[in-house]
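Troubleshooting log. The previous run stalled partway through. Resubmitting the same two chains, unchanged.
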Amino acid sequence: MIDKRIAQEVLDAALESGGDFSELFMEDTTGTTISMANGTVENASYKRNCGAGVRVLKGTRSAYAYTADMSRESLLWAAKAASAIIEGNDKYSAKDFMEKKYSITPSVAFSQIDNNKRIALMKQAYEAAKSYSAEISQVTVRYLDVDKNIFVCNSNGVFASDRRPRTRMAIQSVASSGTEFQTGFEGPGLGMGFEAYDKIDVCAAAIQSAKTAVTMLHAPECPSGIMPVVIDGGFGGVIFHEACGHSLEATAVAKGNSVFCGKLGQKIASDKVSAVDDGTLKGEWGTISIDDEGTPSTRNLLIENGILKNYMIDLLGSRIMNMPVTGSSRRESYEYAPTSRMTNTFILAGEDDEDEMISSMGDGIFASRMGGGSVNPITGEFNFAVSEGYLVKDGKIVSPVRGATLIGKGSQILLKIDRVGKKLWLGQGMCGSVSGSIPTNVGQPRIRVSEITVGGRG
Amino acid sequence: MDIKEFRVKAFEKALEKGCDNAEIYFVNGEDLSVACRNGELEKYSVSRSYGINLRVQIGNKQGYAYTEMLENPEELVARAVDNAKAVETEDVHPMQAKCIYESVPRKEYEFTTLSEKEKIALAIELEKKAIASDERINKVVSCNLVTGIMKTGLYNTLGLEAEREQDMAFSYVLPVAEENGDVKEGMAYRTGDGILDVDGCAKEAANNAIEQLGAESVPSGEYSIILKNSAAADLLEAFTPIFSAEAAQKGLSLLNGKEGEVVASDIITIIDNPMHEINPRAFDDEGVPSKAKHVVDKGVLKTLLHNLKTAKKAGVESTSNAGRSASGPIGVSPSVFYIEPGDKSFDELKNQMSNGIIINDVSGLNAGINTVSGDFSLIASGLLVENGVVVRPVEQITIASSFFELMKNIIAIGSDMKFGIPFGATIGSPSLLVKKIAVSGK
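Second attempt completed without errors. Output:
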C-alpha cells in the first residue's frame, strides 16, 4: 500500500518532537450493502473507505491524526500534526522494517459476485420468513459484504498487511395483530468471502426470526423480580461480553476503571466458568490474523475455572499495566486510534445437561434469544434485552413472555452461574466502544444463573 | 483531481451512461478531539476527512456509490449504475431541482476563536474543577472536548448547488464519587459555546455522582415518575424512528396512518424545526428548503417526517427531513426535534408528584428499546421523593412501558428545556411528569 522509504520518512517525522513510538496505519476497504423490504430491493450502495492515520506515543500520552488523503504530503501533515503536542528531549528513530503479509483469502471474492446473486439469497431469506406465518407483516433483509485491506507499520520495525473479508445477512421479521407489532431478529455472518453462504443457512435464520416475532406477539408481559434464569447459547453470550468482557479490556483496566483491576489469579467467577477471547478461529466474524497494531492475534485464556487469568491488552495498555500485548488492539477504521477490544469472546463448553438445568430450576425465565446490551465498566452494571423468553414454572416451560430485561452487576453474576452446558456456539454482533464499531462474536453453551433481576411489566 | 473536477467528470459520465439524473453529496470536515487525565493531556486527535456520495437515477431506479478516493470517477459511476439496476422498488424518488433558500447565516460561536492550546487548557480545567468540587470526588473516568467544522455540498445535474458549513463543539466529564466503599459515576456535558462554562459543567457532573451515593433499589410496583429533561430527551431520541414516514410506510411504525389521531396526552406538542437557533440549517440532506412544523399538536399527530420519496408516495409535500450518513442512502431523520416546554418549575413538578421517583438517567438505550413495537425496558437511576421531598437516591431499577403509553400518561411538563449533543439531529425535551409506570426493583 506504500513505498517503504515514504513509510520510514513519515515515522521519522512523527518522532521528531521527541515521541518514543510512531505508527502509520492505512486502509482501503470496499463493501456493498443491499436492503430489501417486503421482498423488494429498496437500496443498493457501494462504499470505499480509504485513508491513513499516524499515531505518536510518548510514555502513556498518545496523539493521533488521520486523513482521507494518502499522498506523501498528507501523510507528512498527519505526522507533524500528531507530533505537535508531544514534547521530549530524547530522539528516537524508526527501526528497520520486517515485512510480513497476512491475509484471510476468500475462495470467492466479493468483487466476483454480481448483485443478482446477493439478491437471490436475500429473497430466499425473505420467502422463508414471510411464509412462516400469516401474522408476519413485514420482513426486512439487509445484506452486507466488506473486503477490508489494512496496512500498519511502526518505529519498532513492524511492516504488515492484512486482508479481512466478512459478510452478514441481517433479517428482521415483524409480526402484527393489527394494533400491535413484535419483532424477531437474526444476523448470521462469517469472516470469509461469499463462500460463507455455503455454511450459513439463511432460511433457517429467517425462520427463526419469524418464529421469535410470532411467539412474542402472543406472549404476555414478563413478570419482574429476582429469579433463576437459563440463557441459551450463541448470542446469549452477550451476557459475558457485557458483564465481563468490557471490564477485562485494558481500555478500562489500565485506568483503574474496572471492577476486575488487580484481580489476576483471584476467583471472579463460579468454578464452572472458563472463557477465552480467540481471534484465531478460522473464518469467524470476529477473527483477525493480526490486530491493528500488527500483533498476531491469539487465543487468550481470560478465565479458567473461575480464576482470572488475563486481560485483553493493546500497546498503550501494556505500557501502563506493564504486561505483554495480547493481539487485541482494534479500530473501526483509520478514523480511530486503536485500543484493546474483543474478537471472538466466549464461555467454553462445560459438562452440564441442557434439559436438566431447566427441569431443576423451579420458577424462573428461560431466555432462548437475547437482544443487545450495555454495561458501565466502572460500576459493572449491565442490562440486556431478552428478545424471546419463556416463563418456567416448577421446571416446566409454561408460556412465552415478552419485554424482559436482565440487569445486574458483572462481578456478581459471574459467581452465580451454576450450570454450563456441553454444546458451545457463537453469535454475531457489532460492538461499539471508543475505537468505533467492530465485528465481534459472542458465544457460550446454555448456562444457568441462580438469581438475577428480571425487569418486566407483567 | 479536486472535488469540482471529479464532480464534473462524474456527471458527464453518468449522463453518457444513460442516467437521467445524478447527484453528489460531498462532506468534508476537520475535527479536534482531546482527552485529559490526572491534570494532563492524555489523548489528542486531529483529522481532515472527506467523502463523495454519488446517486444516479435511471427511470424510477436509483443507485449509490461512495468513495474517499478522489480519482477514477468512471468507476464510481459504474458502481452506482450497477446498484441502480439492482433496485426493484417502483417508488419514485424525485430529485430536488435548483432552488433558492432562506438565508441562514452561519452561527457565530465564541469557541471558534480559541486556539488549540486554549481548548486543551479548557479540558484540563474541566477535569480539575470536577475533582476539586467535592472531597468525595477522587477521580475522573474521562474528560473530553471535541470541536469541529463540517462542510456539506449537494450538487446535481438539475442545477442544484447547495452548500453549508456548521461548527460543532461539545465537552463532557465523568467524575467518580466514593464514600464508604460505594462508587458512583456522574456525567455532564455542554455543547456549542456551553463548553466555556467549565464551572457549571464540572459542578453538575460532580453533583450527579454525589447525589447517587448510598443509592438502593425500591420495591417493584407502579410509581409516578419525573423523567428529568436529559433522560426524557434521551428516550425521545431513541424513539424518533417511529415518527419516520419511511418506517411507517414499511409497516415498521405503529404511527402509520395515525395522522389526525390522538397519540399523546393533550399537553404534549412536538416540534421539528430545522431553522431552530440551536442548530439551524437552510436545507435538508437532499436539498429541500427547511420547514418548521408541529409533528404532534396538543396530543394529535399532525404529520410524520417525510423526505421527497416518502412524500411522493403519501401524496404530500416533503417536510424537509431527508437524512443520510456521509456514505449511505437517503432516509428520514429529524432536524431539531423537541417536546415544547411547559411553564412548571422543577420544584412544582416535584410537589405535584408528591410521591414517586425522579429519573435522572436511563441507560441501555441501544438494547432496551424496540422502535417497532414501541416497548422499552431500561435501567434507571434517580431520587426517591416522598411528600414532595427527596429522601434518598435510587439505583438498580428498570422502568418499562411502551412509548405510546408513556406519551399518554404525561400529566405535567417542566419549563427546563434541554437539548442533547447535536450529532446530525438535535433532540430536546423538558422534564416530564408521568402519572404511572412499571418499576421493577427488589
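Takeaways: The first helix of chain A runs from residue 4 to 15. Chain A has a mean pLDDT of 95.
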